[in-house]
Every structure is written in C-alpha cells, then in structure tokens.
Design brief:
single chain, about 160 residues, mainly alpha
C-alpha cells in the first residue's frame, strides 16, 4: 500500500516495494553494485570518532576516511536519486513528475531533500549486497557452480 508524505508545497505518494516494477528497482541495484567497496567501508565506520578529523563536516570526514573517488561520490548521490525515482508514485505539485533517474535532479532542492529523507530506507532495502551478488553467480566462488549455464571456465 502506498504511503503519502508531506513535502514542501504539497504531498507525495510513495510506492511500497511490492508496487515497484523491476524498471523502478533496477537503477538502485545497478548503482549499489558500483558502490560495494564503499558500502563495505562505510559499514566498518561505527561512529564519528572513526572518521578523519581533518575535514570540516561529517560527510567530508567520511569521504576522506574511506578515500572515495569522484566517481564513487557521484554514484552515492545517484543512489539517492534512484531511490526517489523508484519510490515516487505521484505528487500534488504543479510540476511534471520525474520519469527518469536523471530528471530527479530537476526537483526543487527542499522537495528533493524531503523525498531523499523519506526514501532512504527504500534505497537501503533495494541495494544489492555482496552476498546477493555471489548468490546470483557473480561472486568469486561461482566458478565451479554446476548450475552455471556455461559451466566452469577451466581457468
């Protein structure tokens, strides 16, 4: 069942995961695969004391601590865009609703922030973990998987 939230200037209806098609979910999955190294390192940071103290704010300290590249930083922001795209079903704003992940960046800043906060859990729930990737036959232990459609490589 969809959830209605208040956003600056109106209301938005967010899809529950069971209402999302694979077209909605796929961008989150693809981006999360690109971020596995970063997500693993983020999981190891248990409190702000673990972060590099030379940066000014928590985000910068986090990036400095784990050594995020510009591409990883961009992918992390894009993950938020993808979560908003996946969840946003409708809104009462007098603006066209984004129909692509890229169009999410055209949402007014305060509306984007409210949607980002409301969809953060959705993004985390849809992300692909290392275990899921390995289960899909793409992990390092899948070479000898007899269920592999092409068989072992012989390497």
């Amino acid at each position: 069942m969809a959830t209605t939230i208040t956003i600056p200037g109106g209301q938005a209806t967010l899809r529950d995961q069971d209402e999302m098609t694979e077209r909605h979910r796929r961008p989150v999955k693809v981006i999360s695969m690109r971020l596995m190294r970063v997500m693993g390192q983020l999981a190891d940071i248990t409190h702000l004391a673990d972060l590099d103290p030379s940066a000014e704010d928590a985000t910068e300290r986090m990036m400095a601590t784990i050594g995020m590249t510009e591409d990883e930083s961009s992918a992390l922001l894009r993950l938020t865009d993808a979560a908003i795209y996946a969840a946003l079903k409708s809104w009462t704003l007098d603006l066209p609703i984004p129909v692509t992940v890229d169009e999410v960046q055209d949402i007014p800043g305060e509306v984007y922030d409210a949607l980002a906060e409301a969809t953060a859990r959705t993004g985390k729930d849809l992300m692909v973990s290392e275990g899921q990737t390995a289960q899909a036959g793409f992990g390092p232990d899948s070479a000898g998987d007899v269920a592999s459609p092409t068989g072992a490589s012989g390497a």
